[in-house]
Amino acid sequence: MASGDEDDPIIQEIDVYLAKSLADKLYLFQYPVRPASMNYDDVTHLSAKIKPKQQKVELEVAIDTMSPNYCRSKGEQIALNVDGTSIEESNTFSTKMMDKQTFSSIQATTNTNRYAAAVFHKGELHLTPLHGILQMRPGFSYLDKADSKHREREAANEAGDSSQDEAEDDIKQITVRFARPESEQARQRRIQSYEFLQKKQAEEPWVHLHYHSLKDGRSEHERQYLYCQAMDTSENTELVKTPREYLAMLMPPLAEEKIVKPVGPSNVLSMAQLRTLPLGDQVKTLMKNVKVMPFANLMGLLASGTDSTAVLRCIQQVALLVQGNWVVKSDVLYPKSTCSPHSGVPAEVLCRGRDFVMWRFTHERSLMRKEVAAIIKLPPEDVKEFLEQMAVPRANRGWEFLLSTDHDFVKKHPDVAQRQHMLWMGIQNKLEKVFNFSKEDFLQKKDTQTEPQCISGEQRLKAARENAREHHASLQKDLDARRLKASPVSSAPSGTDATVRIKEEPVSDSEETMDTSSALPNGSLNGYPSAESPIMDPYNDHGAGQTSTPELQDFIRNTFRKHFVLCLSEVKRLFNLHLASLPTGHCVFGHVTDRMLQDTILHSHCKQILVPFPPQSNASADEQKVFGLWESGETFDKHRQILFEIFMKNYRVRRNIIQTKLTQELGDGVTKSDIDRLLKECCISLGGMWYLKGTVQS
């Protein structure tokens, strides 16, 4: 306030007083059907009455029948319809002409605590709280009177005609009926009915009032009560408040209202209510209700514009891929500490039985109920429930899977299909131990959702052996070439004829076995892992001592020249995607372990960036192993190396710290475009901070 360049200076202070003399009697009348320039101040008011409890007011005002705008014939016709031709004191229009109209009020608002009437006088502002705000609209009760008179005349005519046919001495039988006791529910409905409310309102008597015009002496006297009578501020305590109390009066805290949700059928899902939930809960709720669904249908049920990648992450947490379609997981339908509603079987046993049914459907289109029940040994009601969730009965064919195989999804998302295949391999191993069966027991003609599941174990082994024989010659040539290249070369002494001798050394059995194993069953078929050994085994790190293939080195080198910074889990994902894209029978990588993959990265001009993750970080071990391209032969390598050294001290930094460090190390030649390129290649921004790619979810 003391600054000289104040934009909104105080030019005047006004004292405010609270007048309470008319606080319980002051009403504001509004006339919404008439313009403000045409008021009723000079119109003759014939009568006024009020129902104080309901705040209902009726005013009768005279109509100027001598006005050139008044239609005399219409006025006489209305009076004739209402009162008829008789002359009585109860007539609505005594002059046989519509010479008055009635205004009836409705409440504009039920809460008038925020409204007051103000009078500004001699530099003082006097406020009087309003008791009610009423909108006065023309009433047409006289038309109801005309209708009732018409009905009375018709009833009288009918009664006169029927009385001539009736005998005066007719004796009629009277039946007495007693009303049954009213229940509490019926009483509540009757109290809330429109008829009861109308009757209740009609019970309050009218209080007749005397109207005084604007310029009347009584009106002038009453207007004096709009001024505060007690000017002493010690008595006017309503406006003497602390700043906190005054702020609470201006903005009272919102009262939390309990919204009673409508109770609907248990099997009905409200889409409007569903879309208020987080994405993960939306996917989980939909899958629990639908049980089996193609991915395209799931995207159609979600809100438009939903990211399909985020939906894929969510769906894999609550469902499994069966024949290209998503089936809700068993532990989602049967949580822990629950049991079967049919037989009381614990949830753990139900989940194992249902997983077996799902696993069988990954290999076959149809199942026989008796065969399933004989293995999982659960009550028939539970087995039938499993099958009804994901299949339909077919005559003479058992239970057929509910949906056709979604080949489009498998082709569009091969990485997801491969991950799900690996997951099913683990589930299969558990089921074989629990139910004591072998997969070969169910070998028959299959029609499943992915190509790897269409091939049995024997067929894979046969294909791998054929593939080994086809590539054995070329692999042997490569092996010989590497041995020749690695053999020592000796030259003749100086001054003699130059001769070169190649020293031949025998090839050890272990080395030959290592190379040929890349084409045997431990390899891959059509880019998918074989049933005997997976391509990427995160639980097997016994690859020390094995050498990587040139193809693997080329893949790592090309990948890091494109992405610059990757965590180990992301490298695995990209590697599996690359394997899935290879043509059928193409096998060049062999058995790749985590150790082999990391060694290949470190020997491809890359370096592990020891990012200090916070203790509460939920990143996995593979996600905390971060690698960056250290040398690529460009002058820009120095920029990346300085950036990596910064992130070895903190897992997140600000842009100005990176800019300052680069300027200190490389001089003033560092431009804004260099920093932009560096951050774009290696980092992502989140919440105003910069992180290395792969260290946080983007």
UniProtKB/TrEMBL annotation:
Q: Which residues form a coiled coil?
A: none
Tell me which GO cellular component terms the UniProt record holds.
Answer: RNA polymerase III complex
Q: Which organism is it from?
A: Pygocentrus nattereri (Red-bellied piranha)
| Domain named DNA-directed RNA polymerase III subunit RPC5 C-terminal: residues | 444-698
Q: Where is the composition biased (Polar residues)?
A: 488-497, 515-527
Q: Which domain of life is it from?
A: Eukaryota
Residue spans crossing the bilayer: none
Name used for this protein in its record: DNA-directed RNA polymerase III subunit RPC5 C-terminal domain-containing protein
Please give the residue ranges the record annotates as the region Disordered: 146-169, 462-548
* Any single biological process term in GO: tRNA transcription by RNA polymerase III
Q: Where is the composition biased (Basic and acidic residues)?
A: 146-156, 462-483
Alphabetical list of InterPro entries matching this protein: RNA_pol_III_Rpc5, RPC5_C
PANTHER family per the record?
DNA-DIRECTED RNA POLYMERASE III SUBUNIT RPC5 (PTHR12069:SF0), DNA-DIRECTED RNA POLYMERASES III 80 KDA POLYPEPTIDE RNA POLYMERASE III SUBUNIT 5 (PTHR12069)
Q: Name one Pfam family in it.
A: RPC5
